[in-house]
Write a structure and sequence with these properties.
By secondary structure, this protein is an alpha/beta fold. The chain contains eleven helices and 14 strands. It has helices at about 25-35, 70-85, 100-105, 115-125, 195-210, 240-250, 250-260, 270-280, 340-350, 360-375, 380-400, and strands spanning about 40-50, 55-60, 90-95, 130-135, 155-160, 165-175, 175-185, 215-220, 225, 230, 265-270, 285-290, 295-300, 405-410. It has a five-stranded mixed beta sheet with strand order 7-6-5-8-11. A hairpin with a 3-residue loop joins strand 12 and strand 13 (about 295-300). Helix 9 (about 340-350) packs across helix 10 and helix 10 (about 360-375) packs across helix 11.
Length: about 425
């Protein structure tokens, strides 16, 4: 099915992306039309993740008599897609309309429209992914918890960041760094997880040698981590699946054991950035978005805690245009990675007629456009204005799911005059 697009004659078209169709505008029009229709149907959607947590949302769709089945499905499918990648989970509870529930079940079944999403979540949570089509009253209500991380500066602590091209470590005494080191490594091309383990241990052990004792270890890295276990991380992309399950999932628990089981916490680097921002701003409800190789994000809630949500906004819908660029990994169109990363700059440079060397890496192509911006090239300026417009619309959409007081925007795409 193709998205049902409402007519938006008042929307100002973007010169470099004239068919851009923000999801927030389409949803507003859809929801308004439903409210004004006869007999709107109430739908409840709940996504379950570990520890019996449920993210539940209520919405309304057209009654079947309105013959808007396609519009209903697309609206619900995009909404569920958003919840899955923003909150995470391994089970969808769908209630209120049996036929729509069957469409959603088919979408997440093997060979379905969202097979990638179902397989990915099953791997993350080590649990079969399923969609339950239920009566409205049987859909679980919302129940979510968050937990405090960081903000502790007392004692002898080690901070370790596992990056894709270097690993950084610091030894900290009562909040003051007394030792730091950065080591170049290549985890993304190594298939043997022994390489990763030895590299991690090397950095942390050297930091520990500078302290009389170790009271706690904090680890940050890109990826998904659940209860200090590795679910998905680009650091281990070359490790075969069978070795991943045996040697990678518990790699940081093995490190913890080597240090006498001192408190150790592994957190996605996006959440670490959001937490640092919250501490600096002395505020909460902070959403951090990094525009670099992809779109990374983290969130600190109203009480200053980490939520345990996935915050994988690179997979969250942005654009309803069915001809929008497809994500080569998930196969979906119009998702965050092509709007808030260096991929967005490259895409828009082509539309602006800016020539780029195909043999250059994405990072090198970005630098070319940034240099043109410094030289006051108006087409280069327009690329960053367009990304800013994308962001304005998408922040309005994100605010439907996050309580936001502050947004931190960072990453290499936002460096320089752009």
């Amino acid at each position: 099915m193709q998205p049902f697009l409402f007519t938006q004659t008042s929307k100002r078209k973007l010169r470099l992306d004239p068919d851009f169709h923000p999801i927030i505008l389409n949803n507003i029009e859809f929801e308004t039309a439903v409210r004004n229709s006869a007999n709107p149907v109430t739908i409840l959607i709940s996504i379950e993740r570990p520890k019996e947590q449920f993210s539940t949302i209520r919405c309304k769709i057209f009654h079947e008599e309105e013959n808007q089945e396609q519009a209903n499905f697309i609206y619900l499918e995009r909404l569920i897609k958003t919840l899955i990648w923003l909150k995470g989970g391994f089970r969808i509870y769908f209630g209120g309309n049996t036929r729509m529930g069957e469409f959603i079940q088919k979408a997440y079944a093997p060979g379905g429209l969202r097979e990638f999403d179902a397989h990915f979540m099953a791997r993350v949570y080590e649990h079969p992914f399923e969609v339950l089509n239920l009566p409205l009253e049987e859909v679980p209500g919302n129940f979510e918890t968050s937990y405090p991380v960081g903000r502790h500066l007392d004692g002898y602590r080690i901070g370790f960041d596992a990056g894709g091209s270097d690993r950084k470590v610091s030894a900290v005494v009562n909040g003051e760094s007394i030792y730091s080191e950065e080591v170049v490594w290549s985890p993304k091309i190594e298939a043997d997880p022994t390489y990763h383990y030895e590299g991690i241990m090397d950095s942390i052990t050297r930091a520990a040698s500078k302290l009389p004792r170790v009271d706690a270890i904090g680890v940050s890295s890109a990826g998904i981590y659940i209860d200090n276990r590795v679910a998905v991380a680009s650091l281990f992309r070359k490790v075969p699946e069978e070795r991943f399950d045996l040697e990678v999932r518990d790699i940081f628990l093995r490190v913890q054991k080597e240090f006498n089981n001192v408190p150790l916490v592994v957190v996605n680097d996006g959440d670490v950035t959001a937490l640092a921002g919250a501490m600096s701003l002395e505020s909460n409800n902070v959403l951090g978005i990094a525009m670099g190789t992809s779109e990374a994000a983290g969130y600190v809630d109203g009480v200053g805690n980490i939520t345990g949500w996935l915050n994988e906004l690179s997979f969250v819908p942005v654009d309803y245009n069915p001809k929008a660029m497809k994500d080569e990994w998930s196969g979906d169109f119009g998702v965050g990675v092509h709007y808030f990363s260096q991929d967005a700059v490259i895409k828009l440079a082509k539309n602006a007629g800016i020539p780029l060397n195909e043999e250059d890496s994405p990072a090198e192509k970005l630098k070319v456009v940034q240099k043109l911006c410094q030289e006051e090239n108006q087409d280069a300026y327009e690329i960053f204005r367009t990304i800013g417009t994308y962001l304005g619309y998408e922040l309005a959409y994100y605010s439907k799911f996050y309580e936001i007081d502050y947004v931190l925007i960072l990453g290499r795409v936002t460096s320089g005059i752009g």
